[in-house]
Amino acid sequence: MDRHESHESHASHVSHESPDGAPLVELTPAAADLLRLLRGRHGPLMFHQSGGCCDGSAPMCYPDGEFRTGDSDVRLASLTVDGVAEPIPFWMSKSQYEAWSHTRLIVDVVPGRGSGFSLEAPEGVRFLIRSRLVGA
């Protein structure tokens, strides 16, 4: 079994949609551009948002399979990006999902340094979640 299969074996795999059928996670054009760049440099990607302290409440981008998900994580979406061969899974801790479940999450990029663990850190930008109420 490869590491990708083993890290997802215990986690929830459901991609969630809002009551109006729209995805719960979207990308801004700037986020999509950055993901194309990161995919070219690092291979397949994934997001995880934990809700922990410091940068834990920001979406973190990793090479796919590098962050181990488990029973305490929910896969909210498989993000499709033009120019990226495979969907990018977006994971969130269940506790964080419970707090954000009534919102549509929009992954954006802003100037500044986020966590040193997220792939975009050396680019001088960081991923950020913007949100709006579901149905809005």
Shape: globular
How many extended strands?
7
Distance between the termini: 42 Å
Strand order of the largest sheet: 3-2-5-4
String of helices and strands: HEHEEEEHEE
Mean pLDDT over all positions: 81
Secondary structure category? alpha/beta
The largest sheet, given as strand count, sense and whether it forms a barrel, is: 4 strands, mixed
Alpha carbon gyration radius: 14 Å
Sheet-strand content, in percent, reads 25-35%
Walk me through the structure:
- The protein has 3 helices and 7 strands.
- It has 136 residues and is α/β, with parallel strands linked by helices.
- The strands form 2 sheets. The protein has a 4-stranded mixed beta sheet. Strands 1-6-7 form a 3-stranded mixed beta sheet.
